[in-house]
Design a protein that fits this description.
about 160 residues; mainly alpha; Ferritin; two-stranded parallel ribbon; about 5% strand; elongated; DPS_DNA-bd; binds fe (ii) ion; 2 strands
Length: about 160
């Protein structure tokens, strides 16, 4: 069922749709992972890591909304359901229970690294079919790479 008419051709829409939907599940999961660690981190660096994690949550939530609404604007129904996120996320398994601060930071370095690699692929994939979506992916990548730098510096 087509409710919203897309400005893109069918061929362009396929590539852009995959990129936007993939980014949505990665960002929803990143927000969940960052909250999980925010609640469970322990150790001498608790306070700084706890607060730093909420900055990642804010970034991930902001961009998940932007990506989902970009999809909708292109006539693609965004799918942010938990089951869809569980199957499609590029982030690996998050540790269960209390997490020491060094492991917490390493978990975020890995999670951000995985999402950034996929986001850079989306930058490449959308440049020709839809530079407007590409612009969104470039902005997301820049912000995620800033967070990635800061977590790497934490364990440096
Ligand atoms: Fe909190």
């Amino acid at each position: 069922m087509y409710v919203v008419k897309s400005p893109l051709s069918d061929a362009s829409l396929k590539a852009v749709s995959e990129a936007l939907q993939g980014a949505l599940v990665d960002l929803v999961d990143l927000a969940l992972v960052a909250k999980q660690i925010h609640w469970n981190v322990v150790g001498q660096r608790f306070r700084s890591v706890h607060l730093q994690l909420d900055e990642v949550v804010d970034t991930a939530r902001k961009y998940s909304d932007i990506v989902a609404e970009r999809a909708a604007a292109l006539g693609i129904p965004p799918d942010g359901r938990a089951a869809t996120v569980a199957v499609g996320s590029g982030i690996g398994v998050t540790p269960e229970g209390w997490v020491d601060d060094t492991t917490a930071v390493a978990t975020l370095v890995d999670a951000l690294g995985a999402v950034i690699a996929r986001m850079r692929e989306r930058v490449e994939a959308t440049g020709e079919p839809d530079p407007v979506s590409q612009d969104i992916f470039i902005g997301i990548t820049a912000d995620l790479e800033k967070h990635h730098w800061m977590f790497q510096a934490e364990n440096g």
